Amino acid sequence: MKPQSRENAGGSGFPMLFYKELLRFWRVAAQTVTAPVLTALLYLLIFSHVLEGHVRVHPDHSYAAFLAPGLVMMSMLQNAFANSASSLIQSKVTGNLVFVLLPPITHVEFLGAYVLAAVVRGLTVGAGVLAVTLLFAVPPLAAPAWIVGFAVLGAALMGAVGLLAGIWAEKFDHIAAFQNFFILPATFLSGVFYSIHSLPPFWQKVSHFNPFFFMIDGFRHGFFGQSDVSPWLSLGVVAGCLALAVGTLLVMLERGYKLRG
């Protein structure tokens, strides 16, 4: 079974599906919002305490101030992915996916509801992480438009990737493997805790093949006004990856790939 086309039914199921996805994570906010915020706070306290006197990434700001934007973006990306991936695989495993697909909803609306809900969760977690990190480190605010742009695009990209993983996966173990072997390593090796200029030349080049690096670097540019690569390059990479993920999803949804009631 696959999402119905608008021609086959009147109206739209988008509002209810979007509302369901919002309600799903907000009802357990202690797990989906508060826990990631506390985890990011622990990262900040531990890494800034251990490395503050040994690492100087930015000449005018403390290491904690440099670390804070990276932790905000990392939390947004991980939680946006988790929202769409866990929701879809839960519906598939419990067998209630058929009730999600039955309402009149187009492929674009189906995709949009999951991705937009993932963006909302990602931004909510990111705002919470930023709020608590400001108690310990206050990064500058050079270009707010870049911050908002990369936050929304990054969360949307990871929401789309989460939906891809949810469609592909057949059980929770598949989502856990995808997260543990791809999402976590890619985020930790994206420059959250360091500048890639501190790496040997070979690993600097390798970092440029990690799309998470461009999301982190572009987001951090909004705070400091400087970055390891041009923010326009980062924006192009993130937007291109998002377009690729959305295009792939639309093809999968059109074919009903692994979406059986």
DSSP strand (E) fraction?
Answer: under 5%
The structure class reads mainly alpha
How large is the count of helical segments?
10
Q: How would you state the average pLDDT, rounded?
A: 88
- Overall geometry comes to globular
The major sheet is characterized as: none
Number of strands: 0
What's the gyration radius in Å? 19 Å
Total count of domains? 1
Provide the low-confidence segments as ranges. Answer: 6-10
Explained architecture:
This protein has 261 residues and is mostly helical. The protein has one domain (6-255). 72% of the residues lie in helices and 0% in strands. The N and C termini lie close together (6 Å). The relative contact order is 0.16. Residues 6-10 have low confidence and may be disordered.
Could you give a quick summary of the protein structure above?
Helices cover 72% and strands 0% of the residues. With 261 residues, it is an all-alpha fold.
List keywords for this structure.
261 residues; globular; 72% helix; 10 helices; mainly alpha; single chain
Sequence-ordered SSE layout with sheet pairings:
Blueprint lengths: L13 H13 L2 H23 L11 H32 L2 H5 L5 H27 L10 H25 L3 H17 L12 H7 L3 H14 L6 H25 L6
